[in-house]
C-alpha cells in the first residue's frame, strides 16, 4: 500500500493481468523448499531442463543461472531438434522468467529448483494463477524492503515500475513523439521517450515528487468487461469446440477535463 498526500494506492490483480498478461484465476501456485541431494538435483535438470550438471553448479537447492544460460547459448534449438528438446527448452525459458522476473527473490546468480514443481507439465502450468503468485511475491518483497537495514529487494520490480509509470504520471518518462496516446504506458518501447528528464536512482527527487502529488497527477482506470461463448460447428453440424470472447472497455481518467477510452478483444479457446 502506497500512502499519498490525497489517499492510498496499491497494485491489484487487475494490474498484474493487464501489464504482465498473467492469469489471475485457476489453481494456486504452491510448493516448498526441499533438501535434495546432488543426485536428485542432477536428475531434475536432466529430465526437465535437458542438460547435465556438476556438483559445483549448485548452492544448496539452487542452480547457477550461468550454467543454464551457457547451455542454451551453446545448444540452440534448430529445425533438427526433437519435440522433447523443444519442450525442455521452453521449460528452461519459463524457469528463467519465473525465477528472475515473475517470482524473483533478489538472488541474481542462482535460482531455486523448487519452481520446477510448477513447470513439469507445461499444459497444466498455464492453468495456474501465476498472477496471484506474482502479486503475493511483490507484497512480500515490499514488506521486507520497508525495513531500514534492507539494501536489496526481489519480486517483479519491472511490473512495479510500469505500474508506477501508468498510475503516477510525474514519474513516467516524457513521450517525445506523437504516436497514439490511447496506448498508454504499456507500450513504452514503441515510443521515443526522454531519459534525461526522468529522475533515475535519485531518491530525493522521487520523495519530493511523491510528497507534492496532486489527485490530478494520478491516472485512474475504470474497466468494464463482458463476455459470451460461441460454439464452433463443423459442416455436419457437430460441435467442434467453444470460443470465449471477452470485451473490455477501459477509461483512463487523468483529470476532470480529459479522459481517454480504449476497447479491446481477447479470445480464449
From TrEMBL:
It holds the Pfam family PMD. InterPro entries: AminoTfrase-like_pln_mobile, MAIN-like. GO terms for biological process: meristem maintenance. It comes from the Eukaryota. Residues 2-211 form the Aminotransferase-like plant mobile domain. This is Aminotransferase-like plant mobile domain-containing protein. It comes from Tagetes erecta (African marigold). The lineage of its organism: Eukaryota, Viridiplantae, Streptophyta, Embryophyta, Tracheophyta.
Amino acid at each position: 500500500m502506497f500512502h499519498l498526500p490525497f489517499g492510498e494506492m496499491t497494485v491489484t490483480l487487475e494490474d498484474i493481468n493487464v501489464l504482465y498478461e498473467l492469469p489471475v484465476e485457476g489453481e494456486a501456485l504452491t510448493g516448498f523448499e526441499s533438501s535434495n541431494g546432488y543426485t536428485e538435483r542432477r536428475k531434475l535438470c536432466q529430465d526437465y531442463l535437458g542438460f547435465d550438471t556438476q556438483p559445483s553448479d549448485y548452492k544448496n537447492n539452487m542452480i547457477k543461472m550461468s550454467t543454464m544460460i551457457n547451455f542454451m547459448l551453446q545448444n540452440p534449438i534448430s529445425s533438427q531438434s526433437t519435440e522433447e528438446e523443444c519442450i525442455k527448452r521452453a521449460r528452461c525459458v519459463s524457469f528463467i522468467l519465473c525465477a528472475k522476473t515473475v517470482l524473483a527473490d533478489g538472488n541474481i546468480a542462482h535460482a531455486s529448483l523448487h519452481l520446477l514443481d510448477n513447470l513439469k507439465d507445461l499444459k497444466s502450468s498455464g492453468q495456474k494463477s501465476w498472477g496471484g503468485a506474482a502479486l503475493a511475491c511483490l507484497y512480500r518483497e515490499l514488506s521486507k524492503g520497508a525495513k531500514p537495514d534492507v539494501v536489496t529487494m526481489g519480486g517483479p520490480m519491472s511490473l512495479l515500475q510500469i505500474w508506477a509509470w501508468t498510475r503516477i504520471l510525474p514519474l513516467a518518462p516524457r513521450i517525445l513523439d506523437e504516436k497514439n496516446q490511447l496506448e498508454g504506458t504499456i507500450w513504452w518501447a514503441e515510443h521515443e521517450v526522454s531519459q534525461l528528464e526522468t529522475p533515475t536512482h535519485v531518491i530525493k527527487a522521487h520523495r519530493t515528487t511523491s510528497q507534492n502529488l496532486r489527485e490530478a497527477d494520478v491516472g485512474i482506470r475504470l474497466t468494464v468487461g463482458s463476455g459470451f461463448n460461441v460454439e464452433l460447428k463443423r459442416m455436419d453440424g457437430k460441435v467442434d469446440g467453444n470460443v470465449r470472447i471477452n470485451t473490455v472497455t477501459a477509461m483512463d481518467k487523468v483529470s476532470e477535463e480529459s479522459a481517454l477510452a480504449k476497447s479491446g478483444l481477447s479470445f480464449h479457446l
